[in-house]
Amino acid sequence: MRGTADRVLTPQTVEQIHEIVLDETARARGVSVVGSGHSYTSLVTPAGRTLVDLSGYRGVAEVDPVNMTATVRAGTSIREMNRQLAAEGLALPNQSAIDEQTVAGAVATATHGSSARQGTLCEHVVSARVMTADGQVRTITRDDPEIDGVRVHLGCLGVVLDLTFALVPGHTLRKVVRRRPLEEVLARLEEFREAHFGGFWWYPHTSQTIVWSATPTDEPPTSSRGPRSALIAALCNNSCPPRVAGVAHHIAARAAERAGTQDMRCDEALLHHLPPPVQGTEYSVPFNRAADAIRELVKTVREGGLRISAPVDVRFTAADSAWLSPSRQSSTCHIGVTYPVSRRRPEAWTRPLRTVDSLLWEFEGRPHWAKVHFRTGDQLASRYPHWDRFQELRRAWDPDGVFLGSYLRNIFER
Fold it and tell me: What's the whole-model pTM score?
């Protein structure tokens, strides 16, 4: 986020949120809801606007063990939700790789997990309560035709108050980590379609990957004996020349492999933390084009001298139904590239990420809404068959563009 907000408000009740939404000054200058600040893009543009920080409106409001659902307030972090659900012997069916985000922010941006059997996290939302620009609270359930517009809304339909998620019984996952040659992994990519959970990291300037999988087990969780994460972080989060980065990554891959096999609580098994500060882009490409896309990325790094010196994250999801989901109606491979940010060269990330953006766009890619991309509204509209339908919903719920910041205005009012 860049710019100075007119004011930042932290409501703790629905009534306080209602007052903000109908406040004439706030409406005139625009209202944006902020989450954890994890997004790399400018979905929230604070300059001159009223920012609504929902960190005071949080917690699991209700757990229904009969219908296997939980209603969670919008400002709750995924980590906080997971811990409360685990205490009840319950869990989400899938888990994002990072759990610092608020539940509302993660769902709104089509944040995904690591299973080709399941869609993005928004697929687990069975109902949502949203306060629209007129102050009305709308409850949208999975029986409503608008549910697939609400699930991925980018913050421009209103203030999400709470979300109700479908749950599964809490369980243990056996996580297996192995080092494998990249080409071997790409040749057997179809195996990820059947995995309960799984993905891999390619270590640029090497031929090495770390492949991980997680499957249910009846064994209880065991204490972690993983590799020294600080060492791996230092080796991976670098901006070194390719030759130096390659040596660092060989060492990091060998260290990461030492994690071996562990039995872990289901949500914890699926977490992968990246060391900050970084900028990142992520593209979602159709599964059947993934191997070729990754090979082209490898070629560009090796032959084009592209300075990508942090491991490339590759994960998978099934097709889902949200209108603006990058996985809509397509089994998907998600390819994430990050670049470290330094004070000495704060904009050094722009060229490599722009190159990756252009490359993956050509493989029918759709950029992750919360990551850096360089696409225009017209280009994005061409990739989403229900783009105009979402536009109609947005205009109906917020005809004056109260929730439309400059970034979103550039995309939707092109």
Answer: 0.93
